[in-house]
Amino acid sequence: MPPAKSPALRPSHLPPVELYRPADLGELLAHAADGVHLLAGGTDLVVWASQCGEPRRLAWIGSIDQLQTLDITSDRAHIGAAVTLSRIVRSGQFRSLAPAVVDGAAVVGSVQLRNQATLVGNVCTASPGGDTIPALHVHDAALDIVSAAGDRRSVKISDFVHGPGQTGLNTGEVVTGVTLRGLGQREGSAFSRFTQRNALDLAIASVAACLSFESDGRTVARAHLSMGAVGPTVLDADEAARSLVGHPLEPARLRNCADLTAECCRPITDHRASADYRRQLVRTLTMDVVDAAAERAIPGWLAVEAP
Amino acid sequence: MQVTLRVNGKLSEVPPSFIGRRLLDYLRAELGLTGVKEGCGEGDCGACTVLVEGQPMCSCLLLTGVLDGREITTIEGLPETFLAQFSAACAEYGAVQCGYCTPGIAVMAAWLQAGGSEVSAQPITKLLEGNLCRCTGYQQIIEALSALQ
User: Fold this and answer.
1) Residue A55 preceded by cis peptide, ω within 30
2) Judging by DSSP bridges, how do beta strands A57-60 and A37-39 pair with one another?
3) Residue range of the domain that includes A252
4) Percentage of residues in chain B with pLDDT exceeding 90?
5) Which helix (H) or strand (E) holds B50?
6) What is the largest distance, in Å, between two alpha-carbon atoms of chain A?
7) What is the pLDDT of residue A13?
8) Is residue A76 located within the same domain as residue A32?
């Protein structure tokens, strides 16, 4: 056995925090109304508490059963606020329903972090490069929110995130989960990002696509494109998506669509990449994810020629 | 609030002063399990990896108080037979240089040997993405872990 209690050990980065473990939603809402921060996976929050000394009071949501539910029906999924990314990655049923979200969840952090981190936490952190957010956009996700008074509201994800680290959550409100639309017939979705490392890295740029086809299997019926890390929030590329609708997905049309996404994104230059580089990445990633989404919608879809 | 963990098979009641601190601090400072290393303290390096209910997690990002009733396994709790195999594989392939990442790698290796994966047919490189080796001996580590499977 190793020696007990060595006094020479370096003190923790993290001064002790006041921790609460509410047993039900009512108790959690009372803590939230009292200004206590909500702790889900802790992969962001515990780092902030360690490095900044804030927040000092945390209420853990993981012991509330109703927040642990992952409900999947034939056309929708509801993901409770305490559901980890690894539960999403491991669910074959969820993968069939929303493959782009699994693409995103599978590249967050590492195995260890995905075992701890939650999907709703990834959204509430509201990073412009949050890996699950573009995919949630193209799956028309909405946040389920409850207030201290018990009022419930549902907010579209594109209206929920206001800026880097900023959401539309009011003091005292709690996100109980996220509800998304599953794929229909002849519909596919995909997400891809570019990073300098393959893991434990933040996206330099990312794109998600959801595409459905008419019964002829060639004409695009509906399209949704969304881009990450190239604006203050995840941005929808509506004009680019519209350019695909009503036409067969031919290489020239796809290239034009990729040009439109590159035009409408609003990247900045920072220590990770220049704005121009990000724009070029968005163009390439758009080609990739539209192709991947089409392949999932109509397996055997003819791969698009290289740009 | 009362918090009791099962650490390496042994029940231990967490003193109130550790409930709002990291599992890493509890394991090292209170239980003396110094095989659990603190590298980055922000979940990137994996040196502090432990198994929680058999699943690898970073003990630097877990608050002890949220783990009531859970089973925690550190490198000290891995079976002797496994550790002998792991050491032999590391020696054979040269998978240890400074050794700081090794306890986290050992925990991951035990998880892999027990059939651990997220989805089927994942390569070891993907599963080991959360364990950094700054001596950059990855190739040897992957070879040693492949030999253990």
Assistant:
1) yes
2) parallel
3) 187-194+202-297
4) 95
5) strand B49-52
6) 73
7) 65
8) no
Nearest-Cα distance to chain A for B94, in Å, is 24
Q: How many CB pairs under 8 A join A and B?
A: 127
Domains of chain B, start order? 4-77 (3.10.20.30), 80-148 (1.10.150.120)
Average pLDDT (A93-101) is: 98
| ipTM higher than threshold 0.95 | yes
The answer as to whether A305 is a domain residue is no
Mutate to test the interface with A, among B2, B7, B108, B119 (most CBs of A within 10 A): B119
List beta partners, residue A178: A79, A143
Token digits for A135?
Answer: 């995919």
From chain A, the residues in CB contact with B129 under 8 A are 110-111, 198-200
Averaged over A251-278, what is the pLDDT? 96
H/E element, B58: strand B55-58
pLDDT digits over A197-225, tens only? 888 889 999 999 999 999 999 999 999 99
Give the pLDDT confidence score for residue A53 in this predicted structure.
82
- Domains held by chain A: number: 3
**pLDDT value of position A1:** 35
- Residue A97's contacts (CB-CB under 8 Å, 6 or more residues apart) are A72, A77, A182, A183
Please tell me if residue A116 touches chain B, with a CB cutoff of 8 Å: yes
